[in-house]
Prior knowledge:
The structure is a single chain. This protein is an alpha/beta fold and 404 residues long. The chain has two domains: 6-30 and 298-403, Aspartate Aminotransferase, domain 1, CATH 3.90.1150; 42-295, 3-Layer(aba) Sandwich (Aspartate Aminotransferase, domain 2). It has helices at residues 6-10, 38-51, 61-81, 95-110, 129-138, 155-161, 184-193, 213-216, 241-246, 281-297, 299-318, 345-354, 367-372, 389-403, and strands spanning 19-20, 23-24, 26-27, 89-92, 116-120, 141-145, 166-172, 197-201, 220-224, 235-239, 257-260, 265-267, 323-325, 338-340, 357-358, 360-362, 378-380. The radius of gyration is 22 Å and the shape is globular. The protein starts with 5 loop residues before the first helix and ends with a helix. Residues 94-96, 124, 126-127, 172, 176, 201, 203-204, 224, 226, 365 line the site of 4'-deoxy-4'-aminopyridoxal-5'-phosphate. Its EC number is 2.8.1.7.
Amino acid sequence: TAPFDVNIIRRDFPILGETVNRKPLVWLDNAATTQKPRQVIDRISYFYEHENSNIHRAAHELAARATDAYEGARKKVQQFLNASSTNEIIFVRGATEAINLVAKSWGEQNLQPGDEIIVSHLEHHANIVPWQQLAGKKNLKIKVIPVDDDGQIIIDEYIKLLGPKTKLVAFTQVSNALGTVTPAAQIVKLGHLAGAKVLVDGAQSVSHMPVDVQALDADWFVFSGHKVFAPTGIGVLYGKEDLLNETQPWQGGGNMIVDVTFEQTKYHNAPGRFEAGTGNIADAVGLGAAIDYVTRIGMPAISQYEHYLLVYATELLKEVKGLQLIGTAPDKASVLSFVLDGYKTEEVGAELNKQGIAVRSGHHCAQPILRRFGLESTVRPSLAFYNTCAEVDLLVDTLHRLKK
Ligand code: PMP
């Protein structure tokens, strides 16, 4: 049985009451983005109705309210990730911007021609392209950890890639295309033993499992608010405090300085040095509300329920004739990827849409891992804690009918 009443939870998400093609919406595209609870929507409205101001600068009441709300959200993120200080939490636009920040600041400042970056075959384009751009500029080498036929990273092959030239390991905690949960703490530890820094892409993990950045021991950890029931346009870069303070900022402007003359500028320590200009204040506050929301339900409870749904969906999908599941690692988060004999993935997506079911059909911004399985595209239902077995049944029934 579920550790919470999913029908009560669903009432918090106004959009789940929508109809699509005169059918109730079934939102199974959570890996692309998640829906927002009333508590988040209301919190953003409240900000604009009662607190809106720029932060830090002016000594007036609304500036104080906005600053408290924004810094309060930073504190919630710190606790959510179990970071040791709020100084380690930098607000950015999303996971993509966080990775680019590390590439364009730390990477540009510290990597030398011939240095090596290791990524895994599972990566989202956001954790490939910035490193490739940097490698082109600085003549670095990118090495790729292979995955096995289940879609799991092969640790022995990873160990062979590590060496004195390895300066950075960047990999995902959960694959957005297959759902694989990688042995992240082990990958971090091995990277550190080789003397490398390690970045963990948590875009797909934070909404599905408890994350503890101190236990993980990553140097940087990134995620996007919109995948964890918060708005788009807000995300987080976590970094170890000393490392952040040793790194020169990538963008200059207001807010991030201690003192400016025409000759030189003295920067704030983190997080200020990496938050130039006016940030996305209201949506950061919305992210704080989303964290409160999932924390109240409990990440362990969410994880447990989603695992149950995942197992349920996996077993039923296996019974659909001609359906091939891609990504069969024993350790998975709630992403399912498949192809169906005789149908293009877009056709499957369109048929499901007729029933009100939203799934992603495509390459999921992770072309290398799909090509590892000889594919350009899969159908990808992805689950969240507000999904139900009845919704999974509808998905599977529609696929059965399609095959008849
Ligand atoms: N990494 C992974 C694993 C993702 O799934 C995504 C989003 N699909 C990203 C990075 C990039 O996130 P965003 O587009 O929100 O910046």
